[in-house]
Amino acid sequence: MNKHFNKFCLTVLLFLFAASVQSQEVDLFNEKEEKTKDIVTAVFKSSRIVNGQSIENVGNGVLDLKILHRFGNISQGAYNLFGLDQASMRIGLDYGVNNRLMIGVGRSTFEKQYDAFFKYKLVQQQTGLKEIPVSISLASTVIYKSLKDDPTAAYLSYVSDKFSFAHQIIIARKFNDYFSLQLTPTLVHYNLVANSTMPNDFKSLGISFRQRITKRLNFTTEYFYSVNKIDGYNDPLTFGLDIETGGHVFQLHVTNATGMTERTFINETAGSWANGDVRFGFNITRAFTLKKPKELRNTKW
Length: 301
Description:
The protein is mainly beta. The chain has one domain: Porin. Helix content is 11%, strand content 45%. It has three helices and 14 strands. The strands form two sheets. A twelve-stranded antiparallel beta barrel has the order 2-3-4-5-7-8-9-10-11-12-13-14. Strands 1-6 form a two-stranded antiparallel ribbon.
């Protein structure tokens, strides 16, 4: 396990090194130019790539209503209308506390889970006055599985047993207007596991990218490689299409994951692409500005 974990840490370091080398500029003539600090924006088009967090935050003072919707397996055939007869969803509220801090809460129908998270920008990619090749954020999520125990079970869990936690380092770079890449080292902790042979901590590495197709259309991919897996579960792989419509993003996707919290879609994905166990889904958002930017508040109309 340590050997695999060391490899994935090395991958992160190599990514940072490569991005740093690419961003360096050599002034052969030692000319001094007046430069400004240009923050790189729109690395991704939403604060979630599909299921997982992206490097983006919702704006300062903005409340974002998110609905993540997932149908059943397409492989069920015409009788269940290729999965459309079944559905699971997560509804959540995200809020931009300031330009760096974002918080959110959500409720999923799958396993009746509640989740709450924060995401904080440590470093922002920028050019000009100061060259910073990547953006880095920290995200932490607490997840509560409120599904009731089977009363006939030999062991009835305590409230604390139903909690799990996810901690992530989000590292992203926008290479140009057409392509962005993100790495997400992740640790998911279970307070209670199925048996004594299982670890409580599960490590994974998320790899995601955005490829622009047109001005309002982007193709996305999201994959998490699990360093240590739970038996019977697979790595999640998702392909998505982001459609920008009037300042909002409508996301269509196909995935083998059912759950929409870090615990369930990273570590508890039962579906397999090889067996055709994939699901169609969509994400929709609606933003509400609760606090106007300072420059607008001071404007006299």
